[in-house]
């Protein structure tokens, strides 16, 4: 199984403010949808609550310490990142094949807890610095190797330049 962190972060590693994104990048949303559709997505409760409704064609695993958290239909609630990964790996009662991808989609605390156990990072680096209250952890060049990058200039739909970066664990 491939455990992939997927995020969009500014050059100062800002992810969001007040439980919301600080930019609107339609192409990044499309890429997120393409990569995560049909897969398990693991997230913290606040990230889940930032969505208007569960994302289609994905199995949501929500991490929360709230004992009586109301489980939305089709979603799974667990207490830890370890439990979330276990559920994603063995959901069908059979361990996932090596090439099956499970995505960690946030937020900041969940990224911090998973950066040392993930195999891959799909990062959209937004070329700006913004004020935020949630940040992506530093990517340590001793642990991660950049294997792909694709630059996108700003345009009428995208307020900022951004680059898709794919890292794998060394």
Automatic annotation (TrEMBL):
UniProt entry keywords in alphabetical sequence: NADP, One-carbon metabolism, Oxidoreductase
Highest taxon of the lineage: Bacteria
Catalytic reactions of this protein: (6S)-5,6,7,8-tetrahydrofolate + NADP(+) = 7,8-dihydrofolate + NADPH + H(+)
Protein name as catalogued: Dihydrofolate reductase
PROSITE patterns documented for this protein: DHFR_2
Biological process, per Gene Ontology: dihydrofolate metabolic process; folic acid metabolic process; one-carbon metabolic process; tetrahydrofolate biosynthetic process
EC number(s) per entry: 1.5.1.3
GO molecular function ontology, one term from the record: NADP+ binding
Pathway named in the protein's UniProt entry: Cofactor biosynthesis; tetrahydrofolate biosynthesis; 5,6,7,8-tetrahydrofolate from 7,8-dihydrofolate: step 1/1
Membership in a protein family: Belongs to the dihydrofolate reductase family.
Keyword NADP part of the UniProt annotation: yes
GO cellular component: cytosol
Glycoprotein is among the record's keywords: no
Alphabetized Pfam families for the sequence: DHFR_1
């Amino acid at each position: 199984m491939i455990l992939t962190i997927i995020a969009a972060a500014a050059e100062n590693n800002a992810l969001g403010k007040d439980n919301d994104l600080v930019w609107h990048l339609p192409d990044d949303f499309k890429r997120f949808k393409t990569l995560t559709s049909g897969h398990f997505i693991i997230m913290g409760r606040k990230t889940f609550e930032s969505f208007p409704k569960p994302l289609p064609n994905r199995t949501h695993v929500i991490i929360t310490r709230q004992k009586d958290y109301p489980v939305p239909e089709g979603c799974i609630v667990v207490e830890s990142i370890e439990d979330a990964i276990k559920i994603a790996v063995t959901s069908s009662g059979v361990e996932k094949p090596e090439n099956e991808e499970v995505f960690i989609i946030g937020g900041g605390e969940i990224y911090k807890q998973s950066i040392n156990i993930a195999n891959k990072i799909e990062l959209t680096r937004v070329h700006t610095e913004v004020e935020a209250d949630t940040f992506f952890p530093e990517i340590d060049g001793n642990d991660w190797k950049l294997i792909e990058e694709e630059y996108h200039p700003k345009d009428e739909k995208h307020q900022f330049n951004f680059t898709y970066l794919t890292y794998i664990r060394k």
